[in-house]
Fold these 2 entries.
Entry 1:
Amino acid sequence: MDELIKICPRCGAAEGQQNRGRNRSGTQACKCAICGRRYTPEPMAHAYADEVRQSAIEMFCAGASGRKIGRVLNMSKANVYNWIKKTSRDSEK
């Protein structure tokens, strides 16, 4: 199995990196034995793709409600409303 080379984001050390179980998201958690920092070597992305955002905005402009868009795209309606709000703010500038 290919072992991931772990480097501490705080001190930059490659030696003394210890596995410390899993995070809530299921990714590997590590701890630096030198500085004590806990970190995730490859964190998961928490953002939706730009195509998903664009399609949600287009659906809203076509007349769909935020709740319906959320159900279709399997996301929170708050995400949809936040993207619409941000898009309208950016277009005002």
Note: The helical segments are 50-61, 66-73, 77-92.
Entry 2:
Amino acid sequence: MGAILVIDDEPGIRATVKDILEDEGYRALTAEDGYAGLDLLRVESVDVVILDVWLPKMGGIDVLKAIKADHPAVETIVVSGHASIDMAVSAVKLGAFDFIEKPLSIERLITAVRNARALSDLRLENARLKRTKAEGDDIIGVSAKMTEVRELIDQSARSDARVLVTGENGTGKELAARRIHELSARSGGPFVAVNCAAMPDTLIESELFGHEKGSFTDAVARRKGKFETAHTGTLFLDEIADMSLSAQSKVLRAIQEMRFERLGGEQTIEVDVRVVAATNKDLRQEIAAGRFREDLFFRLNVIPLRMPALRERVEDIPALADFFLERLAGQPRRRLSRGALEVLSAYAWPGNVRELKNFMERVSVMSDEDEISAETVEHFIARSDGKAPEVAPDRLDTLSDLRLAEAREAFERGFLVHNLRKHGYNIAKTAESIGVYPSNLHAKIKKFGIEAGE
């Protein structure tokens, strides 16, 4: 918690205000002129400054300008015994939180300080949330594919060109769209996301373009559409391929002209919107099947951006898993063992990054291990969808030239050796971890000629 700094050239006022503030539970500092006050601001944590206008050496208005230039987060309450409306207006325009006349009202001063502190706290919280959001929205990965994605996002964000993001469900298409918006000159404007698949065809025109009161049965008031809401910002059309052909034609016209009429309205509304669209479908196949307009495809596909599936960037799984564990609020921090990372990396993750995120949350909640073991990861993967873990295709390359029976035996032998080694060749623990009886494990060890220490 920062202090309250009182800058006033009258010793009696400095001492009185300091005592009042300390009685209210604040930490108070004092300075006799502007230079001394600015020196304190450089070395002390200060939330609010109570600043007299008439000061020696450096006038209060000049001190206020210096505070706003060098310490913009510090709220300043200006006080004066020679106040005028022009002076008050000037101080507020320069960024003063409040202007109070002398002689000071204790109640008014304490209220102003309390409100200024509340605003300071709110700004700090907003900054923290923005940092949290930015950290949460990071595109994690060191693979060549993700490096290429980040480079393309950085390049495309500089322009207003439309971007078409493709990729499987859970690969982070909306995350990419938000990143494009945040890095663009439109970052100060709104980011409006629309799930086209979730909107009935009968309502999509109203959702996108808005409606006037009485334009249909439930239109009890005028409503802005998503295009209008996204004015000066970015409109993200997710699952664009699930939009009907009729709706596609209306979107195409709006994108071409950046103007439209609300449903039931006659006034033409002009907007300035950047459009980013996304789909998990192959739009060229959709066009060939007559389900997607080719002209809309060309309008949207100015900059194509493909988000790779997680199985295509296996080397990013450890960093992603650790990132999700770190973000889990309210849970003890977990670590992943080397064996656990191996199991995570061998799984195909059909739900991609979204599935991995949910999986790490489940493991963190359900496991009481400080270091999450391979057995725990295997246990939850096997039970996540009732299916056995799926091995990524690139992990099967060494078996691809074998016949099925040979591949099965080679895999089983390798699997047994791996688990025996993990458990120090303890038969009972190994049998329990892989779900067989010790006698069956002994038989398999003999069958495959496995020896301790392999």
Note: Confidence is low (pLDDT under 50) at residues 131-137.
